[in-house]
Amino acid sequence: MTATRSTSPNAQSAAGVKSAERALDLMEYLAAHRSGATFPQISQDLGFPKSSLHALLGTLVGRGWIYLDEERRLYRIGVRVWETAQSFAYLDSLAHRAEPHLRAARDQLNETVQLAVLDGIDNVYIAKVEADHPLRLVSRVGMRLPAYATGLGKVLLAFLDPADLKARLEGVAMRRFTQHTIATSQQLFERVKEIRERGFGEDDGEYTPGVFCVAVPVRDATGRVVAAMSCSIPRVRLGDGPAHRDHLVQTLTRHCDAMSRDLGWRAGGV
Questions:
Q1: Which one of 108, 117, 168, 184 has the minimum C-beta count within 10 Å?
Q2: How far apart are CA 101 and CA 113, in angstroms?
């Protein structure tokens, strides 16, 4: 009988990391060789085994990350890199367009105002303007949080196609961060239905105890919700609950509508 040798999980993980490092090394190498490089040149400069390099190039060419000039046998950076860069440029532009509206809302409310977009089942903060208060929200641009646990995130989820929302939640374990965190998909479906009807979302201590948040959608020229703006405040500063909340919503809505108009949106298609 011939014994078979199994690969340990640690060995598989190490192999995966090594492959990822080689892919990144290859992309960085080709980015520095803008006119292209041949297979022998790449192999010599990077020192990869030829069989591994051949497989790696084949995969990346097939996915569009690397382009092969068949006639001259030169490898160059592919169109997928450009497409990905455009996504980054769009978010950077969105954050830049949002800044005057965030500052105007912050100046009126004197509370922290943020902008986020949806990535899978997380909301990612792309812009933030701080309040003057010494007691502030602990967050930062680039931070991502589970969308079901934040006001911003629930607004972004609320305006997805229901089938899309259901697909994104498939297999997601909804962690409870506080006793107020939504714990089931059914609860979330009910909450986002309310948000679509009301036009704004809330987070009352669902991710961070003692922090209250309201959020409003931002639309692009097609009317699609592309971001959400929120105002987050410590519960102790909420004052007259319903009246204060309504003031927050009205102020955010005014500035979100102004930003949406900057992006080409016209209410009612006018």
A1: 184
A2: 10
Residue-by-residue DSSP string for the chain:
----PPPPHHHHHHHHHHHHHHHHHHHHHHHH-TT-B-HHHHHHHH---HHHHHHHHHHHHHTTSEEEETTTTEEEE-HHHHHHHHHHHHHHHHHHHHHHHHHHHHHHH-SEEEEEEEETTEEEEEEEE--S-SS-----TT-EEEGGGSHHHHHHHHTS-HHHHHHHHTT-----SSTTS--SHHHHHHHHHHHHHHS-EEEESSSSTTEEEEEEEEE-TTS-EEEEEEEEEEGGG--SHHHHHHHHHHHHHHHHHHHHHHTT--GGG-
pLDDT in tens, 90-136: 778 888 899 999 999 999 998 999 999 998 899 999 999 988 765 55
Q: Taking phi first (over 0 means left), then psi (-120 to 50 degrees means alpha), and beta for anything else, what does residue 174 get?
A: beta
Give the model confidence (pLDDT) of 165-185 as tens digits. Answer: 999 998 888 999 999 999 899
Count of beta carbons in the 10 Å neighbourhood of residue 144: 14
Among 94, 77, 1, smallest CA distance to 37 is for 77
- pTM for this model (two decimals): 0.70
Cα 158 from Cα 264, distance rounded (Å): 21
Residue 125's identity, in one-letter code, is Y
Tokens of 45: 């400069």
| Distance from C-alpha of 138 to C-alpha of 127, rounded to nearest angstrom | 14
